[in-house]
Design a protein that fits this description.
By secondary structure, the chain is an alpha+beta fold. The chain has 9 helices and 9 strands. Helix 2 packs antiparallel against helix 3, helix 4 packs across helix 6 and helix 7 (224-254) packs antiparallel against helix 8 (263-343).
Length: 383
């Protein structure tokens, strides 16, 4: 039976996928195999999974890059999806040579730590996404990074962290052959959807942290300022992962008409965009809310400090009053003591020593001095 002619397939990347040469006589196409049951990551291997799909169904599960290259050349109308985890430079060089990947995109995939972006290099789209997940144990947000090369008949995913879990995306697509049959763009959509859906738990975790911080602020917890600062940094980092993704989706949407994107994929991407917009609005609200909480906390701290200063001032004033009273009475008692001390000296040649009224004179002087000092201190309200 002669082979059914194929029609070119236009893709989001802006290329027309041409028919490959027909299978030589006497060669039979490999029979479909059951989906791989391998785990998402094999110890000591950078290629975590590789599959070749025909009409949305897995027909081969190569275990090396060489087998994947050979399978894509032999199978007609096939799409290859190669998943890598922290690949070596040699592995990416082999992929670049086979799929004609641009050296700048390959360099970005090796170095990592890129911001979310989308770039077009000839027939290939290069997309960088940043995933996020909320860790309940430490109440922190962990960020991951995935790079995608999307070509006419292949998808290469390069991860530099455990998140996102692309094995779940692969299982989902393999369970829906109709969607996977729409080509490499369906894989790109599914990964975008997975990344954006992963933002949901992060938003809920951050909202819960903010609620706890509000309680701590009004409870007067002294350590809340540090927690506000740390959470603000996490929100800013999360915003850096979310905000540029809107540009990626907008760039894909802008090419819908030009590249004749499948209508169903358009709807999927619009749904992802709606979810992303919701996340962006919530993150923006978090940033403003944390700023207001920090302002309120500073006001409450200032009020508390003012109350403490008022209390200290009142205590100091009371202490001063006591010191005044003690000083006044000490001065009053000092005058007669001084006079008594002078006349208590055992000298013969002293004025009034043998005077008949000397004793009364001394007592009177003590009384007058004491009464005078009492009047002075009373007038100044020291006693």
């Amino acid at each position: 039976m002669s082979e059914r002619p194929r029609n070119p397939i236009r893709t989001l990347a802006g290329r027309v996928r041409r028919p490959s040469p027909s299978t030589p006589a006497g060669r039979t196409s490999p029979q479909p195999t059951a989906p791989s049951t391998r785990q998402d990551r094999r110890p000591g291997a950078s290629m975590v999974d590789s599959a070749i799909y025909v009409d949305g169904r897995r027909t081969a599960s190569p275990v090396t890059l060489a087998e994947t290259f050979r399978g894509l050349r032999e199978l007609t109308e096939s799409v290859g999806w190669i998943g890598l985890y922290r690949p070596t430079q040699d592995e990416l060089a082999a992929l670049a040579a086979e799929f004609d990947l641009h050296e700048l995109a390959v360099e970005d995939a090796i170095v990592a730590h890129q911001r979310p972006k989308i770039e077009r290099y000839g027939d290939t789209l290069f997309v960088v996404l940043r995933a996020a997940r909320y860790v309940d144990a430490s109440e922190e947000v962990e960020f991951g990074e995935v790079h995608l090369f999307v070509g006419p008949d292949f998808v290469i995913t390069v991860r530099h962290s455990e998140a996102p879990d692309l094995s779940a995306v692969r299982r989902r697509l393999e369970s829906d052959p109709e969607l996977l049959a729409r080509g490499p763009e369906a894989v790109l959509y599914a990964i975008l959807d997975r990344v954006v859906d992963g933002y949901g738990p992060v938003v809920r975790g951050l909202r819960n942290d903010i609620d706890e911080i509000e309680t701590e602020v009004f409870r007067g917890d002294p350590a809340v300022s540090r927690r506000i600062y740390e959470l603000s940094r996490e929100v800013i980092e999360f915003e850096r992962a979310v905000r540029p993704l809107a540009t990626v989706i907008a760039s894909l949407s802008a090419g819908f008409e030009k590249y004749g994107t499948d209508e169903e994929l358009r709807r999927y991407l619009r749904d992802v965009e709606d979810h992303l917009t919701e996340v962006r609005e919530q993150v923006d609200g978090f940033r403003h809310l944390l700023r207001d909480i920090l302002t309120v906390n500073a006001t409450l701290v200032a009020q508390q400090q003012n109350e403490e200063m008022k209390t200290l001032t009142e205590a100091s004033m009371d202490q001063n009053e006591e010191v005044k009273k003690i000083s006044a009475w000490a001065a009053i008692l000092f005058a007669p003591t001084l006079i008594g001390t002078v006349y208590g000296m055992n000298f013969d040649a002293m004025p009034e020593l043998h005077w008949r009224f000397g004793y009364l004179y001394a007592i009177g002087m003590m009384g007058l001095v004491s009464i005078g000092l009492y009047g002075i201190f009373k007038g100044r309200r020291w006693i």
